[in-house]
Write a structure and sequence with these properties.
The complex is a heterodimer of chains A (260) and B (235). By secondary structure, chain A is mainly α. Helices cover 85% and strands 0% of the residues of chain A. Chain A has one domain. Chain A has eleven helices and no strands. Chain B has a single domain (2-234), classed as Rossmann fold. Helix content of chain B is 36%, strand content 26%. A six-stranded mixed sheet of chain B has the order 6-7-8-3-9-10, with helices on both faces. A four-stranded antiparallel sheet of chain B has the order 2-1-4-5, covered by helices on one side. The two termini of chain B are 36 Å apart. The model of chain B has no long low-confidence stretch (mean pLDDT 86). The chains are: A mainly alpha (260), B alpha/beta (235). Chain A binds chain B through residues 3, 7, 11, 14-15, 69, 71-72, 74-83, 256-260, and chain B through 11, 45, 48-52, 67, 69-73, 75-77, 79, 83-85, 87-88, 96-97, 99-101.
């Protein structure tokens, strides 16, 4: 497994997209930190970018990487390697490389700015952690879609739709349902619904950490009550981990049954 | 050595292999022949575990290979279409496969034999079809495995490389190895193969020596003998 991770990682390190992705975060980090007066505001803006962008990039890279490395995969399949080793190895190679681009791209500006001496460091770390989680989740989901769809165009379309659904449409549907069922107690409902979507969950986690949950109104208070406690934080991290674990399990399961 | 029992495989509604039985007990060169779509590649890929059969069993040295992976240490495979990760150079690819297998290799002799020394630092994406096929051959023959499976090994090769390839076949055979080849080039079959396995509609239609095939069909030319087999089926 380690060798496959290494080779996939090397392969990606040579592609210029990894550098573009890294450079983008680097630039974004510098611009936001040095043009914004307050680090907290920069963190909020970064959060908005990360929460939409990491899933999108994870999805696109995941699908593209899977389809592009098809020949490499076939070469590996004829070698004495377990199937799960090949696919999970490739998955980790990609997810780690994307996470490193994110962590270094944003980490360097923060270090240069001197954020390590302020209390913002915890907010910032949470931001990176959430970004890493989202990268791992969406690369895994993208791999699942690509494994199930032989047709590249179809696979790509479904992957983008999935991103759109989780990043945009889910929120819309959630808000509409809150309006429609206004007369009912909705705290449990909204709590569970936001736990089910990794993007929503990440957003709420960061907002609560930044202590601006007042912006969320009544539901915010409910969230604060739940997520503010260590139980809340632990359970959200568990849910995020499940979002990584289940897609990986499905990658293992699917890859065992597939013909090449 | 290889024992295939009642192998079935469907792709959607198309039955590619139907209750296929095949036993290869000794070393030598076995040519797997058959018209396009007769299931040659599916059979090969089933042995390799790349295609998962619906039912049946494949035994290698008496042990079932289905759902296993370490048996592939004993097999090398030359795929039909030589597509490699383009970002790597030739030498990096060779090193990588060596590293994955972790056993003794003879790549240097092969690199010189096929005149590939000057290509070692070139990226695979920039190589011509024939040159890629040579890389493919180096990757296949650099290991010392008891079973060698070749899917269309001659495609794109120049005559000089072809002569070298035939010599390799001979030396590997003399070492007592089993070589499975699919090809559409009948002259090659006649020249090198010990036995023919003729596949038609997912079944073994004929298995025996070239001479036996000729006698059975009353033909002197192997191409005609094969054609005869096919028309016999149609009558």
């Amino acid at each position: 497994m380690f060798k496959i991770i290494k080779y996939s990682f090397y392969d990606l390190m040579r592609s210029r997209w990894s550098y573009i992705y890294f450079a983008f975060y680097l630039l974004l980090g510098f611009v936001l930190l040095f043009l914004n007066n307050s680090v907290s505001k920069a963190v909020i803006t970064l959060m908005n970018v990360i929460i939409v962008l990491t899933p999108l990039i994870g999805t696109i890279f995941g699908v593209m990487f899977y389809y592009n490395s098809r020949e490499f995969t076939e070469l590996l399949l004829a070698q004495p390697l377990k199937r799960s080793t090949i696919f999970v190895g490739q998955y980790f190679g990609l997810a780690i490389s994307l996470s490193l681009s994110l962590a270094f791209g944003l980490g360097i500006p923060f270090i240069v700015y001197g954020a390590f001496e302020s209390s913002v460091i915890w907010n910032f770390s949470l931001l990176i952690l959430v970004g890493v989680f989202l990268s791992f989740i969406f690369v895994a989901l993208a791999f699942n879609i690509a494994l199930s769809n032989e047709n590249r165009i179809k696979g790509f379309g479904i992957a983008i739709l999935m991103w759109l659904l989780l990043a945009v449409i889910y929120d819309g549907a959630f808000l509409i349902s809150l309006m429609v069922f206004d007369d009912y107690p909705l705290d449990k409902f909204s709590l569970i619904t936001s736990m089910l979507n990794p993007i929503d969950l990440s957003r709420i986690l960061i907002l609560l950490k930044l202590d601006i949950s007042a912006l969320l109104g009544y539901t915010g208070a409910v969230f604060q009550q739940f997520f503010g406690t260590s139980l809340g934080i632990i359970s959200s991290l568990i849910v995020l981990s499940l979002w990584v674990v289940f897609p990986i399990l499905r990658i293992v399961y699917k890859s065992k049954k597939k013909d090449f | 050595m290889i024992n295939i029992k009642k192998l079935n495989k469907k792709f959607g509604k198309v039955e590619v292999l139907k209750d296929l039985d095949l036993a290869i007990t000794k070393g030598g060169i076995f040519a797997i022949l058959g018209p396009n779509g007769s299931g040659k590649t599916t059979l090969i890929k089933s042995i390799l575990g790349m295609v998962i059969p619906d039912s049946g069993d494949i035994l290698l040295n008496g042990k079932s290979v289905l759902k296993k992976w370490d048996y592939r240490n004993k097999i090398t495979y030359l795929p039909q279409i030589a597509n490699f990760p383009g970002n790597l150079t030739v030498i990096e690819l060779i090193e990588m496969i060596k590293n994955l297998r972790n056993c003794a290799t003879t790549e240097n002799e092969l690199i010189d034999l096929f005149g590939m020394r000057s290509f070692l630092d070139k990226k695979l994406v920039n190589l011509s079809g024939g040159t890629k096929q040579k890389v493919n051959l180096i990757l296949t023959f650099m290991f010392d495995s008891e079973l060698i499976i070749l899917d269309e090994p001659t495609s794109g090769l120049d005559p000089v490389a072809l002569i070298h390839l035939k010599k390799i076949f001979q030396t590997e055979k003399d070492k007592g190895k089993t070589i499975l080849i699919t090809t559409h080039i009948m002259s090659l079959v006649e020249e090198i193969s010990d036995e023919i396995v003729f596949l038609l509609d997912g079944k073994i239609y004929f298995k025996g020596t070239v001479q036996a095939l000729k006698t059975q069909t009353n033909q002197t030319n192997i191409e005609h003998a094969i054609a005869h087999l096919l028309t016999e089926e149609n009558v």
